[in-house]
Amino acid sequence: MTGDLFAPQPAAVSSPRLAAFDWRRIAADLDEYGCALVRGVLSPEECTQLAAGYSRLEQFRSRVIMQRYGFGKGEYQYFRYPLPDLVAELRSALYPHLAPIANRWYAAMGLEPRFPALHEDFIARCHAAGQTRPTPLLLQYGVGDFNCLHQDLYGEHVFPLQAAFLLSQPGQDFEGGEFVLTEQRPRMQSRVEVVPLRQGDCVIFPVFHRPVPGTRGTYRVNMRHGVSRLRGGHRHTLGIIFHDAD
């Protein structure tokens, strides 16, 4: 797929943390594999601080015990507004890099609407439609916990890409607990992608659909993600979803 997707948007180049990454490669990986691994976005100190914040209940709007709803085992909490500074920075600075890819994907799949260049404008659209609850979240897993394959859809307005940041150190803080992505192409068996995250790494992946070229044109491929069973220790993850919930 080609197009003007690699040009950085104005708000994106203002973030030194993200401007240094190879967004051409990230876009190409998303097209080819349905996900992109970005190494070392967060420092170990930032990861530790974010994970430690799980116990600060005042910064969250709700807590979900996954087993109660058949989502898996483990738990997560949704942040409330105003978001912590680092979470807000990541959300607003990632979005302008991803909006051109999202627009190109929607055009290829024949979907509407198109997405504005700035996250604040997209959030204004969500809020006007009654989607006002923030969706960034912290997830916590212990031994035996896992996250079933799912899609993070929270209302009519959905941004088609999201990001997850591993806050714990594999092999030191936990064992197992791999990030898993599956795609189901028409008339084919599911394909699985396991992403080897390290502490501070980010994986960018589709919320629900992505376009895949085929012999009869572009297919709309269904995507789901989850986390495999934790075999030891504790694992924390920061999830960045760009649309708000109704």
TrEMBL record:
**UniProt xrefs under InterPro entries:** DUF2086 (IPR018655)
Top-level taxon: Bacteria
Identify this protein by name: Proline hydroxylase
Q: Which organism is it from?
A: Massilia eburnea
